[in-house]
Amino acid sequence: MDVRVERRLFTVEEYHRMAEAGILSEDDRVELIEGEIVEMSPIGSRHAGCVNRISHWFSQRVGRRAIVSVQNPIRLGRRSEPQPDVALLRPREDFYASEHPGAEDVLLIVEVAEHSAGYDRGVKVPLYARYGVVEVWVVDLLRGVVEVYRGPEGEGYREVRVVGRGEAIAPLQLPDLHVPVDQILGETS
C-alpha cells in the first residue's frame, strides 16, 4: 500500500513567527531553504577560523564600498532565508536593520565547508543561482580549494572554476580586492 505524504512548506513570514512564538530560538542552528527548516552542521574550529579570516580580511579592505555580513540571513523569495558564512552587501544607511538583504543586495556570498561541501554545492549554490546572486565562493577546507561560481543562469552558474593555494581571486563587484587563497585557507588546511 502506497502512502502519500505531503510536506508542509513554510514561508519566511511563518518561519519568523515561529521564532517570535519561541518555537525556534536564536540558538537554534537552522535556516529556511525552499520552505523547509534545515538544521545546519555544527561549526568546527577550522570552519570558524576560516570565517574569521575571511571576514577580517574583507573588513580591513572594503571600507564604505560594502558591508561585511557574517552568518546573517539573506532573503530569497517567499520560502528561503539561508545564512551564508560571509556575505558582502551593498552599503545601506540602516545596515539592513529594517529588513534582511535580498539577492539584489549581495555582491558576494562565501560558504565555508568543512564537511558540508556536497550540500553547499548541490543545494545552496543552485538556490543562489535561481535567485540571481551574482557570485558565490565555496571554500572546501577538506580539498584545500575555493570554488568560484559566477554568472547565475537557471539552477547554476555560467562560470565555475576552482582556485588553489598560490592563487588569488577578486570578487567581480570589487575587482581590486585580490584575496590570496592561502589567506582564506590559512596555514593548517
Automatic annotation (TrEMBL):
Superkingdom of origin organism: Bacteria
Cited SUPFAM superfamilies: Restriction endonuclease-like
Keywords: Endonuclease, Hydrolase, Nuclease
Coiled-coil intervals: none
Residue ranges of every copy of the Putative restriction endonuclease domain listed in the record: 12-181
GO MF annotations, alphabetized: endonuclease activity
Protein name, as recorded: Endonuclease, Uma2 family (Restriction endonuclease fold)
